Amino acid sequence: MKGGRAARRYAAALFDVTHKSGSVEAVGQSLAQLQALISGHPELSRALASPAIPATVKRDILLAVVDAVGGVPAEIRRMLAMLADRDRLAELPELAAAFALRLMDAKRILQADVVTAVPLSDASRAALTEALGRATGKSVSITERVDPAIIGGVIAKVGSFVYDASLMRQLERMRDTLTAGQGS
């Protein structure tokens, strides 16, 4: 079974259990914090992914970290123990990402990756969020990136749709139109 597929199945199982108990929000937040903590310590990440370290040792290390952090929901603790027992702790980043996507989907929120030539002002960000929400029929959460190469405008990727209103793309279309007219 491929890692990504297994991680999505574990995330779906964790989501179903926590959704029924009403703790899905808290578990999602705690899982994201735990994943950030682990990814923020490269040595810990390498240890959990290393095939040279026995699964039982990985389990003990991770559960010691969880105990030190405190406040980690029991569902996550059980999931981590199960992953450790199956030597699948390396899949924790994919599991956390899949859980976050499932939670956003349940809340009818889409993630939009937005590229602009300059940083967005608060007013522009709000207007763009609202426009993307109207276009998709869902709430939208924006992740921004600045790329001066697009010259101006915005490129927004929402799910599998790309809205490209960049000046660079408009210039490319104009060039294509002009060069197509020269062939006649």
Task: Provide a concise account of the structure shown.
This protein is of the alpha+beta class and 184 residues long.
Write the layout of secondary structure elements.
Layout: H1 3-21, H2 24-39, H3 42-49, H4 55-69, H5 74-85, H6 92-106, E1 109-116, H7 122-136, E2 139-146, E3 153-158, E4 161-166, H8 167-182
Parallel strand pairs: 1-2
Antiparallel strand pairs: 1-3, 3-4
Helix pairs in contact: 1-6, 2-6, 4-5
Structural notes for this entry:
The protein is an alpha+beta fold and 184 residues long. It contains 8 helices and 4 strands. The chain has a 4-stranded mixed sheet with strand order 2-1-3-4. Strand 3 and strand 4 (161-166) form a beta hairpin. Helix 4 packs antiparallel against helix 5 (74-85). The radius of gyration is 22 Å and the shape is elongated.
Domain module tally: 2
Determine Rg (CA atoms, Å): 22 Å
**Count of beta strands:** 4
Q: What is the spatial order of strands in the main beta sheet?
A: 2-1-3-4
**What share of residues are in beta strands?**
15-25%
Name the overall outline.
Answer: elongated
Q: What descriptive keywords fit this protein?
A:
single chain; Peroxidase, domain 1; 2 domains; four-stranded mixed beta sheet; 15% strand
